[in-house]
Amino acid sequence: MSASTTSSLVEVNEATQPAWPTARKMDLVLEGWLKHRPIRELCREVGISPARYYEWRQQFIEAARMGLAHPEVERHSLEVRLRQLEVENAVLERRARVFQELCVAD
């Protein structure tokens, strides 16, 4: 199989794959980085191109850099999420009360 044929097979495989969860991307980056595995071998096993691996690694590094430089960004993000969950919880509690009232009324 020629290099161009192999390359096109990888592209097809990547195009047909569902989106990769963030946790899985992190696991793959760390596996290649910390276990000193050959990146080509790792990429071949999971069906991604080395270019995609290096893109994910760069994103990982940038996120770490941002987190170290701006820890308040993480805190703010968590606070926003907490407020969203509190609103959602209030809505669900109201719905539960209405549902209970309807069930008791029957």
Task: Write out key terms for the chains shown.
about 110 residues, mainly alpha, Arc Repressor Mutant, subunit A, disordered N terminus
Q: How would the blueprint of this fold be written?
A:
Layout: H1 3-16, H2 22-34, H3 39-46, H4 50-69, H5 71-105
Helix pairs in contact: 2-4, 4-5
Structure description:
The protein has two domains: 1-69, Arc Repressor Mutant, subunit A; 71-106. Helix content is 85%, strand content 0%. The chain contains five helices and no strands. Helix 2 packs across helix 4 and helix 4 crosses helix 5 (71-105). It is elongated.
Please, what is the average pLDDT?
A: 82
Number of discrete helical segments: 5
The portion of residues forming beta strands comes to: under 5%
Distance between the termini: 71 Å
Q: What does the largest sheet look like? A: none
Number of strands: 0
CATH class of the largest domain: Mainly Alpha
> Helical proportion?
over 70%
Our count of domains comes out at 2
In the CATH hierarchy, the architecture of the largest domain is: Orthogonal Bundle
Low-confidence stretches: 1-14
CATH structural fold name of the largest domain: Arc Repressor Mutant, subunit A
What is the global morphology?
elongated
Helix and strand pattern: HHHHH
**How would you describe the oligomerization state of the chains in this entry?**
single chain
Give the helix/strand class: mainly alpha
